[in-house]
Amino acid sequence: MGVMKRVSLVFKAKANKALDKMEDPRETLDYSYQRQLEMLTKVRRGVADVATSRKRVELQMNQLQQSSTKLEDQARKALGMGREDLAREALSRKASSQSQLNDLQVQYAQLQAEEEKLTVASQRLQAKVDAFRTRKETIKATYTAAEAQTRINEAFSGISEEMGDVGQAIQRAEDKTAQMQARAGAIDELLASGALDDALGGHRDDIQSELDAISAGSDVESELSRLRGEIASNQQKQIGAGANGGQAAGQVPGQAQATQQAQAPQAPQYGGQPAALPVSDYPVDDVEGGAGA
To answer: Cβ–Cβ contacts within 10 Å for residue 75, how many?
Structure first.
């Protein structure tokens, strides 16, 4: 029994929560106003029915009043003609009509009082309905403004369902863009290192890579030799300029050449053969002589 009560309570709580989520106060107010209008219509219809009954009683009262007056005239005429029996019968019918008239007068008073009460109730209900309609429109306008403000605030804060979906879409797009950029950079690095082959440039095997490395090394040696030659040429020009200055000072050309030979460094001996000296260590005349030969 306790389990069934708990199940019933849970079901009611779930249903109440679902109904609360589905309920729109504006629709509820409109429905309440519609019900009040229906009630006001019923009250007005009741007033009309009571007024109709009162009018019918009033017509019956008029008819009985006219009948009583007619019977009294007939009794007077019969009595004048010496027909007392007819006069008595007319007066008897008049008394019966008067009794009915009295009853109708009581009903008429009751219906009139009921009509007045219903009329007052209808007027009060009309005033309440009008006040409710004004308050209803005010509440609906306030609720609509609050709802719009809430949606705007949710949109600004990013917690609304629509803006949440937009934010997630932007985040996914940024993640995919970053992933594609990283992939493109990785492929560029692999192509530059030779780990991947260029589909348009053809296949590069290990032998070709080694030959390319040797060719690059030969180019480096050629550049190195060219730089050495330029350095040696500059040094020769400097030494030649110094020799010309000595001759201008009165030195004999033969003495200057002997002096340069005496100052030139001697090549070391290895195994009885003189070792080759660097280009920069040879005298200028020897270098020029070798170049001339």
So the answer is: 21
Assess contact for 97 and 67: CB atoms under 8 A. Answer: yes
Domain that holds residue 81: 42-138
Task: Kindly state the tokens that stand for 56.
Answer: 């019918």
Closest by Cα among 140, 47, 56, 60 to 100 = 60
d(Cα 180, Cα 168) in Å, to the nearest integer? 18
Position 206 scores a pLDDT of 62
Q: 């009630």: which residue's tokens?
A: 39
In a domain, 253, yes or no: no
Question: Side-chain half-sphere of 113: how many Cα atoms within 13 Å?
Answer: 6
Q: Is the pTM of this model over 0.90?
A: no
Q: Is 271 left (phi over 0), alpha (psi -120 to 50) or beta?
A: left
* Token pair 């029994």 in the structure block, residue: 1
Cα separation, 68 vs 98, in Å, equals 7
CA 243 – CA 260 distance, rounded (Å)? 9
Q: Is residue 180 a part of any domain in this protein?
A: no
Tokens of 164: 């949440």
Q: Is residue 171 in a domain? A: no
Instruction: Pick the closest to residue 285 from 269, 266, 264 (CA basis).
Output: 264
Q: How many domains does the chain have?
A: 1
Amino acid at 293: A
Q: Block means of pLDDT (10 residues each) for the chain, length 293 residues? A: 76 73 82 92 91 92 89 86 86 87 90 91 92 92 88 73 70 88 84 64 59 70 84 86 58 46 45 44 44 37
Task: For tokens 């170049």, name the residue.
Answer: 291
